[in-house]
Amino acid sequence: MLKTKQKRNNRSLRCEQLEERWTPAQFGIPWADSTHLTMSIVPDGTRVETESSQLSTALDAQMARVTWQRMILQAAQTWANAANLNIGLVNDGGQPIGVAGAPQGDVRFGDIRVAGLPLGDDALAVSIPPSHTTTGTYAGDIIINTRAQFTPEKLYAVLMHEMGHVLGLDHSTDTNSVMYPTVHTPAVLTAGDIAAITELYGRRAVDFNEGRAGNNTLKDATRIRFSVESGGYDGSTPIIGYGDIGSATDLDYFEVRTLDGYQGPITFRVQTSGISMLTPRVWLIDSAGRVLQTKLGVNSNGTVVTIQIPQSVSDGKYFLRIDAATHSTYKFGRYGVAVTFDGLLQPTGISIDAVLRGRYESLAPENVDQLFKNPAASIFEDDLHLDDTPLTAIPLRVQPGQPSERDLEATGSISDPTDVDFFEVRAPRATNTISSWVMTVTVRRALANGIVPRIQVLDSNQQPVATQIIKSSNESFAVELLGVPSRATYFIRVQAPLQPATGNYNLHVNFGTIPAELNALTSGRLTAGAGFNVEQSLYIARSQMFNFFLTATLAPVTMTIRDLSGRLIHRQTARPGQPTSGVSKMFLPGQYSVTFSSSAAATFRLRGSRITDPIGVVYNSPVYEPQYQPNPEVPVYVFPFFPFLPTPVPFGFGPP
Residue 562: phi, psi to the nearest 5? Predict the structure, then answer.
């Protein structure tokens, strides 16, 4: 949160209790896929809990829309320039902030959403950083205070600060840093800011095509290859390539060969829209080295450049040269390339835009071909059961496009119900300040034919090790292992979920220093005498966000939370051996009824994490003052118990 400097007034001095720090926001946690981040500006009327965003109305009254939107984009790209990050601008469908969905990759809006609400006088904006335990789509959201007055320079400074938060950075004690908690202009990244963001994400990595020689000359051009499956490529689907312009001198060449006997039109498409803010310049060159056409991107927030030739050379070749347009503001970023043989192209099951924006760089041409033809049934990596044991495990090492050995990624598939994938990982070396690591292993549902498999961690002797499940939802599953020694080797076993049994997943292994916070909230036993129900009350003294983690034994247990008017606020169900993470939820001050129910005898345990800093999107809104004060005659049971806290406590479970 970025605060304003308070003006001197004539009111008498008084002490104000600061927010307690039971489980503060966990900064220092990177996004799982930093090279495929997206951002959107929510339309006015978008629901934020019980209020509606009015960002455009508020800022339009203070400056031209093109100006304030440029400040938002410039802040995002300034951070992206400094590290291994790509942030692409996408449309926002106006779904409520925090709606159920994937924390990253939801096609309805950006991973980072910018909205506006009337907050208190002490806040210019608030934001929610990424977390290993956060579920739903809250992570990455920024709320601008629509009651504040901004100049373009001040708005840019605020966005630089909040963008740092949603990328995982904490406040800085350096008064010159953009992460210092009081706004100042001009906002310029300090050496400390750059060091902090590169510590999380690394410096911009070379793309998959660079290799030792690179592809910055015609003779070293990267060939965009055809599928050779089922007798060869027939031109009915696009062929795809990916690249990245990572420095002021970087440029890329691609080679495209035509089909034997085909002389019809060909369209070459270079896209940064929804991928990054790079403004590309594209040359089309023939096999003799002659430049046939040159085109520039027209937008500075992502664009699509297309070049079409009406008649091609049979069994010939063409080259694309791509770099940043000299006039552009944004010269770094990812892009995708699609080539279509228009006379042979057939309708596809997934759009070119979705494939170029997706995480498909590692797919073979055969897999891309199948992705276009039948995305709902495509299998990305059919390993033919060749990695079903630790002895045949796939080593996870730093690859082109990945920042460091602290963040390792892979795309995998479960091709049949008996398929098992093994991956081998090695912890980074210890440092002067880090003697052991926190290893977090996350599997996420792929965008096409996605599944959320289950994972198990084994040590170097291939023996299972005890891990804590920190997330279990319809979109992702994560476990955590503490005290990982320097250079220790582990195996990760990935197996099919119950339903569906086959599909694709993304694996992410992070070696960090911050463990997930899952605190004990409440527990109980459901018996026949009580109708297999337990009722409690949840008392909320301050607006705050919860991530609930429910575990059940003996029989499925459902937790239902309603406000005192009976309105449903939250519901989630856990089955024995299948704990669940409910969608992260913002609770307003007040009293809520909580019911744990089952159809048979069962026990339950509720844990959770609570985000208190940033303070949440409605904490300082005058609409919610005064905050809820529970009846002092009602006992409130707080987990864990803090005897030194004054009444009322921030929250607590107690009898109904």
Answer: -130, 155
